[in-house]
């Protein structure tokens, strides 16, 4: 009986959410410039600014495996205009209605609090998606739109990070597919996980469907679930490594991405070993390859350009080339383990001495 009452309560709360989303206060679609100079003008959050309490209709979400950004913590939210919904697209990014706002806030621990550094909005405006970076002030009371922001010094794990906030052009480097800007994270397999909402813990895909934010989705139990790169219980070494490469590399290294000319395609759905880099020569040699012959060599991470570039933080060598200034030690070690676990090698894989 108690469980039944809890289910009824969750249903009532969910219906209340839908009703509130239909009259979501001051959150409204903004389809063209000028966009607000202050983040607060979007009315995405209520109460104390730095606490990021979502306004009605603003839904928090997370991904199974997330992009590495110098160990920053990230919080994600989405808002869609009342009466609209995203359309499920199988393996592809969902199709979002005009006016949708995707929100990602980056922060670092600072003493007993979390210091907010930037909040990036991706807005589906009249002429397409627009990337808007907002930089938080020192008082943590608001963030200001700055399309060419200076780096911000933050403390992390005893060292100073010169945290780089991408400008509008850099945002497009990752978010452009076939030269069209758009979201890259909200795919079914990335979102297929549970999330703790105020009214209880629910699968995100099921929850979005229930509140009217997603249409045409299959039952989550029939949808692929991407592995969490650093949780062995969620997948094999291969699945976790492929998930890591998908999220950190495939937005560029795909047939429609900015690195399509390399022929190195790192989506977790790629089945062609050559496209994954195995025994594949790079399209250009030089300093970035460190004299190595192949993008990836089975059994030999030390001979793989992929591992070499992930383990560098030198400009024009490091990969990804934007979005980080530090080497992701744990991520690089995962890829090393993945490469080392295979057998096969490549003919003439060792560079001439």
How would you portray this structure in words?
The chain is of the alpha+beta class. The chain has 2 domains: 221 residues, no CATH class; 109 residues, no CATH class. The chain is 20% helix and 21% strand. It has 7 helices and 16 strands. Strands 3-4-6-7-8-9 form a 6-stranded antiparallel β-sheet, covered by helices on one side. α5 packs across α7.
Structure summarized in a few sentences:
The chain is α+β, with helices and mostly antiparallel strands. Helix content is 20%, strand content 21%.
Q: Treating each run of at least 4 consecutive H or I residues as one helix, how many helices?
A: 7
Helical fraction = 10-25%
Mean pLDDT: 89
Number of strands: 16
Q: Return residue spans where pLDDT drops below 50 for at least 5 consecutive residues.
A: 1-24
Largest sheet: 6 strands, antiparallel
Quote the beta fraction: 15-25%
The strand order across the widest sheet is 3-4-6-7-8-9
Head-to-tail CA distance between termini: 75 Å
Helix-strand string: HEEEEEEEEEEEHEEHEEHEHHH
Cα shape: globular
Radius of gyration: 21 Å
Task: List the defining traits of the structure above.
21% strand; 353 residues; six-stranded antiparallel sheet; 20% helix; two-stranded antiparallel sheet; globular; alpha+beta
Layout of helices and strands:
Blueprint: H1 2-22, E1 45-46, E2 53-54, E3 59-61, E4 73-79, E5 86-87, E6 101-110, E7 113-125, E8 128-136, E9 143-145, E10 152-156, E11 159-163, H2 168-175, E12 176-177, E13 180-181, H3 188-191, E14 194-197, E15 200-203, H4 204-210, E16 214-215, H5 237-249, H6 305-310, H7 329-340
Parallel strand pairs: 5-16
Antiparallel strand pairs: 1-2, 3-4, 4-6, 6-7, 7-8, 8-9, 10-11, 12-13, 14-15
Helix pairs in contact: 5-7
